[in-house]
Write a structure and sequence with these properties.
The complex is a heterodimer of chains A (343) and B (435). Chain A has 343 residues and is α/β, with parallel strands linked by helices. Chain A is built from twelve helices and nine strands. Classes of the chains: A alpha/beta (343), B mainly alpha (435). Chain A: Heteropentamer. Part of the GPI-anchor transamidase complex, consisting of PIGK, PIGT, PIGS, PIGU and GAA1. Interacts with GPAA1. Interacts with PIGT; this interaction, via a disulfide link, stabilizes the expression of GAA1 and PIGK and links them to PIGS.
Chain lengths: 343, 435
C-alpha cells in the first residue's frame, strides 16, 4: 500500500513497486496481490522518463515493468477501502481482484509506506489511519480466521508506533524507524528530480534481490537489514505475538509462493467404493484411443455447420388447447354443418 | 370492387418488399417512433433466443410480448417479413369489408330516418349518396396500406401490425353483428395491449343498435344483452390468459406485459406523452402521476358513450384515436390505424375548421422527429426538450384533429335534424359552437 499522492512522493510509489516486484518474482501471482497506489508516477506528466519508475539513480532497475496490476488506484486508496480489504467487509459488487481472498491457512504480507507520525499513517494527504484501528482490523481478521501468519512491514517516519498496539496472535512486524525518528530517503536522481527510494526499502530491496524461491534465509536476516550506519534511523521489529521462532521462519514463507511438496514412496488406497462406481460404466463407452487433434473437429463439419436446432418447443398441451379453441370458434361462427366438409 | 383492391394490395406489397430489401430497413427498424419497447422486433428475437437457451424470456426487462406472440413467431421467425406483409394485407382487407358493411348500415339508417321525416327539409346536400360512398372502402384500404406510417411500421417489423390486424378483425366482426367473434377478437386485442378494453363500449352500443335494443338503463333486455356480451368477452379473456400460462408454465408474463404497460418503467423517448414527464419527476410523485395518466386513457369512454350512443362506429374511431394518442408507448403504427378511417368521414370535410393547419402540423412533425432526434442524440446541439416539443406538437395536432372531426360530426348531425340555415330568436344567422 502506497498512501501518498503528488509527484514529490515518487519514492513511496517506488518503494511499493519494489516490494511488489520482489513478491511477484518469488512466485506470488497477481490474483494473490492487492496493490494500492495512491498516485500514478509512471504516467505523471512531470515524469521525464514516462512509463518507468526507477529505484536507483543509475536507472538500473525499472520497477514498473510490463505487468504491474494496480488494484486500488488514485482516489480509491482510502482508509475505508484499506480496512474493508483487510476485514473482508466489501460490497458484493467488488471484483475479485480487489478482494483479499484469504483463509485460515494463508500467510499475509502487508507492506505500507507513506508519511506517518506517532501512532498514525497519512492517507492521500487528507485522512489518517491510527495504530489502534490497524490493530483492531488485524484482530477482526484473526477472529474471522483470515490469516495463518501475518508479516507487517511499514516504512514511514516513526513507523514503530504503528505496531505498538497489535494484540492478535501470529503477527510479526517490522518498521523502518522508531518513535521519534524520521525515515530518510535514499538518494535523489538529478534527471528525474525527486528522491527515488527510501533508505530502508532500498536496502530491503537489495536484500530481497538475493532471495530466490529455494533460499533458506530466515527472518533474523531480514531484521539485520539496514543497520543504523546505512539507514540513519533505527529499524525495529516485533515478534512477541509470533508463535514460531523467527530463526525458523523462512523469508519465502511470506514473500514467495513456495509450496510444500512431499514425495511419498508408498501407495495410498483411495476409497474402495470408488472402484464400484467406476465399473458401472460399460467399457465400450470409454475412448480406447486418444483422438488426434486434427480428427477432433473435421474442417468439413465446421464449414457446413447447420444453424443450431431450436431447443425449445411449446408444450403439447398448449398447442392442443389453442387449436381446440380456434376450431371451436370457427364452428360456433360458421355452424356445425361445415363439419361434414372436414370428414 | 375486388380488382382495384387487389391492385392496391399489390402496390402496397411491392413498396414494402422494396423497402425490406433496401438499406433503409435497418435504419427504420431502430427509430424510436416506430419501435417501442412493447413491440420492437429485436426484442421478439431476443426473447426467442433466450427461450432457446432455456431461460424464461420474461426474466429480464427486455421482452414484453404475450405468450401467443411467442408461439406465433416460434414457427414463423424465418418468414417474419412475409408474416408482417400478410398481416398488413389482412388488416386492410378486414377494414375494407367492415367499411363496406358499415356503408350499407349507414345507408339503411339514413333511408329509415328520411322516411320517418326526422330530417329537416333543406338538408338534401348533407345526405350521403351511394355514388359518393361507393369508393370509400377502397379508400380506407388504400389509406391504411399506403400510409407511410404503416409502411414504416411494417418494414420495422413492429408487432403493432399484429395488434392493428386484431383490432381490424374485431371491427369487422362487430359490424357484421357477430357478438361472439367480436368478443373473442376484443379479448385478443386486450390481451395483447391493455387499452382496447375501452373499445368494449362502442362495440356493445353497436351490437345493441343492431339488435334493436333501446339503450335505456331500466330496460331488462339491455342489461341481459350487456351481461351476455360482457361474459363472452371476460370468459374469452380468461381462457386466453389461462392458455398462455400453459405455454411457459408460469405467470411471469402478467407483470412483464401488463405491469409494464401500466407502470411505465421504461422511459425511452417515443411519440407519446409519458416519457418526458416521468423522466423529470421525483420518485414519490410517480405513482400518483402514473395513475392519472392511465386513467386519462380510460376516462373519455363514458362521456363519449353518452354523447355518441347513436353513432357507435364514430365512437369507435374516436376511441381508437384516443388510445393511440394517450397510450403509454404509442408508435406511428397506432396512428396509421385510426387514420385509415378518415375516408369514412370524408363527407364531414365541409365542416372541418382547421384541417389544413392540422395536416401541416402532422406532416411537419413527422419530418422533424428524426431531425431533432439526430440533433439531440448524435450532434449534441439539442436536448430532450426539443424532441419533446415535437412530440407535444404532434400529439396536440392529433388531438385537435380528433376534436375537429368530433365537432364536425356533431355539427352535421345537428344540421340534419334542425336544418342548414339556423336562425336565432331574432332572425339573424346563428353559429354552432362546441361547448
Amino acid at each position: 500500500v502506497c498512501t501518498s499522492r503528488f509527484w514529490f512522493n515518487y519514492r513511496h510509489v517506488a518503494n511499493t513497486l519494489s516490494v511488489y516486484r520482489s513478491v511477484k518474482r518469488l512466485g506470488i501471482p497477481d490474483s494473490h496481490i492487492v496493490l494500492m497506489l495512491a498516485d500514478d508516477m509512471a504516467c505523471n506528466p512531470r515524469n521525464p522518463k514516462p512509463a518507468t519508475v526507477f529505484s536507483h539513480k543509475n536507472m538500473e532497475l525499472n520497477v514498473y515493468g510490463d505487468d504491474v496490476e494496480v488494484d486500488y488506484r488514485s482516489y480509491e486508496v482510502t482508509v475505508e477501502n484499506f480496512l474493508r480489504v483487510l476485514t473482508g467487509r466489501i460490497p458484493p459488487s467488488t471484483p475479485r481482484s480487489k478482494r483479499l481472498l484469504s483463509d485460515d491457512r494463508s500467510n499475509i504480507l502487508i507492506y505500507m509506506t507513506g508519511h506517518g507520525g506517532n501512532g498514525f499513517l497519512k492517507f492521500q494527504d487528507s485522512e489518517e489511519i491510527t495504530n489502534v484501528e490497524l490493530a483492531d482490523a488485524f484482530e477482526q481478521m484473526w477472529q474471522k480466521r483470515r490469516y495463518n501468519e501475518l508479516l507487517f512491514i511499514i516504512d514511514t517516519c516513526q513507523g514503530a508506533s504503528m505496531y505498538e498496539r497489535f494484540y492478535s496472535p501470529n503477527i510479526m512486524a517490522l518498521a523502518s524507524s522508531q518513535v521519534g525518528e524520521d525515515s530518510l530517503s535514499h538518494q535523489p536522481d538529478l534527471g528525474i528530480g525527486v528522491h527515488l527510494m527510501d533508505r530502508y526499502t532500498f536496502y530491503v530491496l537489495e536484500f530481497l534481490e538475493e532471495i530466490h524461491p529455494a533460499s533458506q534465509t530466515n527472518m533474523n536476516d531480514l531484521f539485520q537489514v539496514c543497520p543504523k550506519s546505512l539507514c540513519v534511523s533505527t529499524p525495529g521489529h516485533r515478534t512477541d505475538l509470533f508463535q514460531r521462532d523467527p530463526r525458523n521462519v523462512l523469508i519465502t514463507d511470506f514473500f514467495g509462493s513456495v509450496r510444500k511438496v512431499e514425495i511419498t514412496a508408498e501407495t495410498v488406497a483411495l476409497d474402495r467404493g470408488l472402484a464400484a462406481f467406476e465399473s458401472k460404466f460399460p467399457e465400450d463407452e470409454l475412448a480406447t484411443e486418444p483422438l488426434k487433434y486434427a480428427e477432433q473437429l473435421p474442417v468439413a463439419q465446421i464449414i457446413h455447420q447447420k444453424p443450431k436446432q431450436k431447443d425449445w418447443h411449446p408444450p403439447g398441451g398448449f398447442i392442443l388447447g389453442l387449436w381446440a379453441l380456434i376450431i371451436m370458434v370457427f364452428f360456433k361462427t360458421y355452424g356445425i354443418k361445415h363439419m361434414k366438409h372436414v370428414f | 370492387m375486388a380488382a382495384p383492391l387487389v391492385l392496391v394490395v399489390l402496390a402496397a406489397v411491392t413498396v414494402r418488399a422494396a423497402l425490406f430489401r433496401s438499406s433503409l430497413a435497418a435504419f427504420i427498424a431502430e427509430r424510436v417512433e416506430v419501435a417501442s419497447p412493447l413491440n420492437a422486433w429485436k426484442r421478439v428475437v431476443e426473447g426467442l433466443a433466450l427461450l432457446d437457451l432455456g431461460v424464461s424470456p420474461y426474466s429480464g426487462a427486455i421482452f414484453h410480448e404475450t405468450p401467443l406472440i411467442i408461439y406465433l413467431f416460434h414457427f414463423l421467425i424465418e418468414y417474419a417479413e412475409l408474416v408482417f406483409m400478410v398481416t398488413d394485407v389482412l388488416t386492410a382487407v378486414a377494414l375494407y369489408l367492415a367499411i363496406q358493411d358499415f356503408n350499407k348500415v349507414v345507408f339503411k339508417k339514413q333511408k329509415l330516418l328520411i322516411e320517418l321525416d326526422k330530417y329537416a327539409p333543406d338538408v338534401a346536400e348533407l345526405i350521403q349518396t351511394p355514388l359518393e360512398m361507393h369508393y370509400i372502402p377502397l379508400k380506407v384500404a388504400l389509406f391504411y396500406l399506403l400510409n407511410p406510417y404503416s409502411v414504416m411500421s411494417c418494414v420495422a417489423k413492429s408487432t403493432c401490425a399484429i395488434n392493428n390486424s386484431v383490432i381490424a378483425f374485431f371491427i369487422l366482426a362487430t359490424i357484421k353483428g357477430s357478438a361472439f367473434l367480436s368478443a373473442v377478437f376484443l379479448a385478443l386485442a386486450t390481451y395483447q395491449s391493455l387499452y382496447p378494453l375501452t373499445l368494449f363500449a362502442p362495440a356493445l352500443l353497436y351490437l345493441l343498435q343492431r339488435q334493436f335494443i333501446p339503450i335505456k338503463l331500466k330496460s331488462k333486455s339491455f342489461w341481459l344483452y350487456t351481461m351476455q356480451y360482457a361474459s363472452l368477452y371476460l370468459c374469452s379473456l380468461v381462457v386466453i390468459i389461462c392458455l398462455s400460462f400453459f405455454l411457459l408454465n408460469s405467470w411471469d408474463f402478467i407483470p412483464s406485459v401488463y405491469g409494464f404497460i401500466l407502470s411505465v418503467p421504461d422511459l425511452t423517448p417515443n411519440i407519446g406523452l409519458f416519457w418526458y414527464f416521468f423522466a423529470e419527476m421525483f420518485e414519490h410523485f410517480s405513482l400518483f402521476f402514473v395513475c392519472v395518466f392511465q386513467i386519462n386513457v380510460f376516462f373519455y369512454t363514458i362521456p363519449l358513450a353518452i354523447k355518441l350512443k347513436e353513432h357507435p362506429v364514430f365512437f369507435m374511431f374516436v376511441q381508437i384515436a384516443i388510445i393511440s394518442i394517450f397510450k403509454s408507448y404509442p408508435t406511428v403504427g397506432d396512428v396509421a390505424l385510426y387514420m385509415a378511417f378518415l375516408p369514412v368521414w370524408s363527407h364531414l370535410y365541409r365542416f372541418l375548421r382547421n384541417i389544413f393547419i392540422l395536416s401541416c402540423v402532422l406532416i411537419f412533425c413527422s419530418f422533424l422527429f428524426p431531425v431533432l432526434w439526430h440533433l439531440w442524440i448524435y450532434a449534441g446541439s439539442a436536448n430532450s426538450n426539443f424532441y419533446y416539443a415535437i412530440t407535444l406538437t404532434f400529439n396536440i395536432g392529433q388531438i385537435l384533429l380528433i376534436s375537429d372531426y368530433f365537432y364536425a360530426f356533431l355539427r352535421r348531425e345537428y344540421y340534419l335534424t334542425h336544418g342548414l340555415h339556423l336562425t336565432r330568436q331574432d332572425g339573424t344567422e346563428a353559429m354552432l359552437v362546441l361547448k
